[in-house]
Model the fold of this input.
Amino acid sequence: MNAFFLGLRLLRGSGRRGQIRFLLMAFGSALGVACLAAVLTIPAILTAHDARTAAREPRPGTSNVLYQEFRDPYGSQPLHRVFVAQTAPGPTFVPPGITKLPSSGEAIVSPKLRAILAANPSTAGLVPGRVVGTIAPEGLGDSEDLYAYIGTTPAKLTEAVELGGFGIGRTWRQIVEPSTLNILRFTLGCIVLLPLVIFLSVCARLSGESRARRLAALRLVGLSAKDTLRVSAGESVAAALAGAVLGIVGYLGVNELMARIGLPGLHWYPSDGRPQVSTLALCLLGCPTLAWIVGQFSGRRAALSPISVRRTGERNPPRGFGMLLLVPGLGIIVGYCALSIMGRDPSGGSTSSLLVPGAVLLTGAGLVFGLAPITAWLARRLAGTAKSLPVALAMRRTEVDPGSSLRVVTGLVLLVFGTSLTQGVLVEMDQVSRRTAPLQEYNLSLSTIAPEKRHALADVPGVQTQVLSYSSWDPLDGSIVPHADLVVATCAQLAATAQWSSGCVDGRIMQLRDDRTGFDRDPAAGERYPFLLRGGRKTALTVPHERIDTHSWGLSVFRSGALLVPPSLVPPKLADSAGTLTLVSDSDPATVRSVLDGIGAVAPTSPVEPVGIVIDSLAQLTVIRSLLAVGMVLGLVIGVAAFVVSVADRAMERRAQVTALALLGARAGTLRGVQVLQVLLPLAVGLGGAVVAGWLAESSYLITGGGAVHWDWEGLPLLLACALGVLLVAALASVPMVRRHIDPEHIRRD
Done:
């Protein structure tokens, strides 16, 4: 402990430069700890959300209360309503967040739903009855939850179940599915936690050469090797501990702010995002422990060989053991890619779920630990053939000390590598959560839409066209009668909506036929089918002999066997009860959410069926995108911070060499060129490896995921553009770090 406190005393008396270095280390550690707390708290936020939704789930049983659940989309959000009816007087079960169940004609709603009802009176049909209360936070998943308990009578519940209580062990409506959550955790670990460890290590090794010279001086005046290492760790631990406390305080403030703003698709209460005891322990103890380990490692050379440190002895070349990690990592990744090229499908099974993440970790570690020997070897080759003085100086310096350059670029290399993995996760989630067809259809019952609103729905942003369809008359008495469907559309609408069509003639009633689709109701030519008119009368249509060969995009209103009827030949006054309005848009998630929100604004009480997709899956994709975007922002902040801190520290440490070169007559342009080349060489090597390895890792993930997309060719240009942008920004940021200023204080005599 005496040696530890000696390090603190030396820090206090190290002057302004030492104190500035201590503040930089502390603020760097604070930024890292804040990012670490944010990543570790994300699962806790999701768990708290799922725990509250599980506690309110009604379960069947025996009681004097009947219930029936309805889960419908309101725009792009799920709306959950629980209708309850008491069959006999007596005590009832009560869910969390309310004090009693509503009586008939009453409703208790969430704050968000109450605000919607107040702002838009046309939505009153969603919640029949008088709103008498608001659900407390303990009964809601989050602050944006649309939930309601509605009191009614038993006669109005068509599929009622006796209520046995509220709360189940685990909700089946989790905000993120467990398998997806594991993928999300792994991805966030790669794009945030790995660069974070590098960044904290960089902060713990600021002014490494100056500190090593001071430690060597202490060792030469008689301090033991162990005490020298303790002195080395004292300053790092003190800065890391101060930074950890500051980072936790900063994160708490950001959490209070973001909980009130939220993320797209994800909202939470401030208490959900407050760090747990385990998170606090990891942040407050893990960061100082890492600083202690780094301090012990960085001070080892000064403790064991102080003479070589004081006299700037020759350093040992970097070892190439780290490159060996790339062999199994890339071997597994390339193997899966080769299987896909050969036409084999390696998806499924538990082997791939273990091999691919392991290969990704080995590849990322290989990029970090293998960058030093590769850079040193390449610098030695370039220095031997260089004809330019700046290139020769930069390459020789990189050859002698490649580690200092790597601390500058490692965070950015891992950021680009993690970006490729994030693209793969988004592509895979996008395939799972939406239709593979390029078009998306939305079905609404005509009986729930006023005629004037139909024109407004056609003007919803993103809607390309709208189509009316009707089903033939049904006696509704349980008897089975033949059915037929008619679609009111033109040949142009068919061509724009179907995958392929041939033989359509405008102005004639024709039958659609898709030879790839089996049809349980196959109207034959010449058969007549009745269609219900307003007022109860019926009209009949004859199935024509003319057919249109068509291929639809999966489930579609233009189904095989339906009759295509031009608008001019539609029987007048067809009953809306048998009609459906179908809207068509692009199928990308952003457009789907926009169209659903537009439908909710025009016809909030009309049930919407997004064909082929589930609203919960769409909401989950939005949450995943938000969390990955947060991870990318945190990774970008960490990578940029590591680069800025490393470049600034490296410029401070190189002032003696810059001064010596300036005394020898080196020009300012030469010195700046040397600085830029020293940064660009390892960065170019690392980014090149990150782009290639990251894209192959992404492809192996997509191949083993079993989706239709195996090669993300669309994401590759974005990855290359990011790498080139990082190179350009790094080069520009390195220029002002060198000043051609001769300061005698920086010239030392050994």
Residues 513 and 560 are 5 Å apart (CA to CA). The first helix runs from residue 2 to 12. The mean pLDDT is 75. The radius of gyration is 34 Å.
